[in-house]
Design a protein that fits this description.
Layout: H1 4-21, E1 30-34, H2 40-48, E2 53-56, H3 59-68, E3 76-79, H4 88-94, E4 97-101, H5 104-113, E5 121-127, H6 143-150, E6 156-163, H7 171-191, E7 197-199, H8 206-211, E8 216-219, H9 221-224
Parallel strand pairs: 1-2, 1-8, 2-3, 3-4, 4-5, 5-6, 6-7
Helix pairs in contact: 4-5
Cofactor: pyridoxal 5'-phosphate
Protein name: Pyridoxal phosphate homeostasis protein
Keywords: Pyridoxal phosphate
């Protein structure tokens, strides 16, 4: 089995290849390593190989890893899972990005609990592009009003959109969903100068997502292998 560093190289090569096929620069796509349920020593290995952005779903697990890796001061932590109201204070204090914003109440709590002497929290609005009842996210038609409401929060910076297309969709349906996200993103970016991130694409649809304009792919399985059992439940941002 390849080492985690070798798998990182393979993922980077896949990103570069997909970008080449789409006439894009490889550096236009950010790799987010989804490290939920994986130990801190694996994160450290990837860090030493040059990876800086890591995504976590489970708050307590993430806080423990952050403490263990506190010597790595330039790690960038993304919270990518569902957010409960009683978790917002720790998320606001310990993450640089939140990719799963779909409720104004949660956005307000994150804003109010982000220290005023900290840089604003980067946020992505989660879109339920395929209208799946089992997934979080706002509906596309709600986006204009929701994005406008977020502008009242000075400790949040709207950076773009995140989605999880239906896992069992046909290739044609997947492509339609990804292209619909790209159109939503382009419209949003034309209105808000801070918007520069479209987070979509995981281990099984990386190439299609990049072809559709993704600027950030969330990769877990291709880097770390199959996730541990505790990551199976309450999983709203798998990779």
């Amino acid at each position: 089995m390849n080492s985690i560093v070798e798998r990182l190289k393979e993922v980077r090569n896949s990103i570069a290849s997909a970008c080449l096929q789409s006439n894009r620069r490889p550096e236009s796509v950010q790799l987010l390593a989804v490290s939920k349920t994986k130990p801190a020593d694996k994160i450290r290995e990837l860090y030493l190989a040059g990876q800086r952005h890591f995504g976590e779903n489970y708050l307590q697990e993430a806080l423990e890893k952050q403490q263990e890796l506190a010597d790595l001061s330039d790690l960038v932590w993304h919270f990518i899972g569902p957010i409960q109201s009683n978790k917002t204070r720790d998320i606001a204090a310990n993450f640089s990005w939140v990719q799963s914003i779909d409720r104004l109440k949660i956005a307000r709590r994150l804003n109010d609990q982000r220290a005023t002497d900290s840089v604003p929290l980067n946020i992505l609005i989660q879109i339920n592009i395929d209208d799946e009842k089992s997934k979080a996210g706002i509906h596309p038609e709600q986006l204009p009003a929701f994005a406008a409401d977020l502008q009242e929060f000075p400790q949040l910076t709207l950076r773009g959109l995140m989605t999880l297309p239906a896992a069992d969709a046909s290739s044609a349906q997947q492509q339609r969903s990804l292209q619909a996200m790209q159109r939503l993103y382009s419209e949003l970016a034309s209105q808000y100068p801070t918007v520069d991130t479209l987070s979509m694409g995981m281990s099984n649809d990386l190439e299609a997502a990049i072809n559709a304009g993704s600027t950030m792919v969330r990769i877990g399985t291709a880097l770390f292998g199959a996730r541990d059992k505790k990551g199976v439940t309450n999983d709203n941002a798998s990779a």
